[in-house]
Amino acid sequence: PIDPNFEQNREKVDEENGVAVWGPVDPPEEQGIHGTHVAVDYDICIADGACLEDCPVDVFTWVDTPDHPTSELKVEPTHEDQCIDCMLCVDVCPVDAIDVDPG
Ligand code: SF4
Ligand code: F3S
Question: Using a 6 Å cutoff on CB, does residue 100 contact ligand 1?
Answer without folding.
Answer: yes
